[in-house]
Amino acid sequence: MASTSDIRNGLCIRYNHDIYKIVEFLHVKPGKGPAFVRTKLKSVTNGKVIDNTFSAGHKLDDVRVETHKFQFLYNDGDFYHFMNTEDYSQIQLVEAALDNPGLMKEGQVVTVIINSEDNAPLSVEMPASVILEVTATEPGVKGNTATNATKPATVETGATVNVPLFINEGDRIKVETDKGTYKERVKEQ
User: Fold this and answer.
1) Distance separating alpha carbons of residues 151 and 11, to the nearest angstrom
2) Where do the structural domains in the chain lie, given as residue ranges?
3) Where is the Translation elongation factor P/YeiP central domain (predicted)?
4) Which residues contact 33 (CB under 8 A, 6 or more apart)?
């Protein structure tokens, strides 16, 4: 059993007859009244995100998990297929178990969280950022670096990311995977 003081991003808990992963949390200590923890919970079975508030000291039923490195192989429309990098076993996950599947490239190594009790995969954690090539966007104009204006760009995985006006097709950009936002342009090496 865990308590609200053990809450952290990525912690998996049993709540309302389902397993949830804590996506966001905030400890609140108001001037008047008891402390509490505001959380955003994501169901690992259907991907639904709910907001919940736990009072300070509330006991949580945590789920024992293991993490393993898996390589993303392909998406067949219904399932995303992964291969364990240690024993080469393969698993398939539904899109709801993935946080931002549109930013995943084939061959990318991710961390899969697995329930220790029944060896069922719960969720996939991607690296903090990924480098992707822009495949389609309006042409950039020289000198468009002073404003914060953005335009949509399609990256090699098919996802759409808002980028600054100076980004062109063929540029490589770093994208934050948790929010799916542009971070910076990557120079060619």
Assistant:
1) 36
2) 2-62, 65-125, 129-186
3) 67-122
4) none
CATH class belonging to 65-125: mainly beta
Specify the amino acid at residue 1.
Answer: M
In 36-179, beta strands by DSSP E: 36-43, 49-55, 59-62, 65-75, 79-84, 90-94, 109-115, 121-125, 129-136, 150-155, 160-164, 172-176
| Topology adopted by domain 129-186 | OB fold (Dihydrolipoamide Acetyltransferase, E2P) (2.40.50)
Examine domains 2-62 and 129-186 and report if their fold is the same: no
The 10s digit of each residue's pLDDT in 65-81 is 888 899 999 988 888 89
SS3 content of the chain, % helix, strand, coil (to 5): 5, 55, 40
6 — phi, psi (to 5°)?
-90, 0
Instruction: State the CATH class of domain 2-62.
Output: mainly beta
**Measured torsion, CA atoms of residues 1, 16, 48, 42, in degrees rounded to the nearest 10:** -10
Please state the pTM of the whole predicted model.
0.72
Quick one: CA torsion of 164, 126, 27, 114, rounded to 10 degrees?
Answer: 160
Tokens of 117: 């009790």
Please state, in angstroms and rounded to a whole number, the distance separating the CA atoms of residues 136 and 168: 8
Is the separation of the CB atoms in 154 and 134 below 8 Å?
yes
Per-residue pLDDT tens digits for 156-177: 888 899 988 888 888 899 999 8
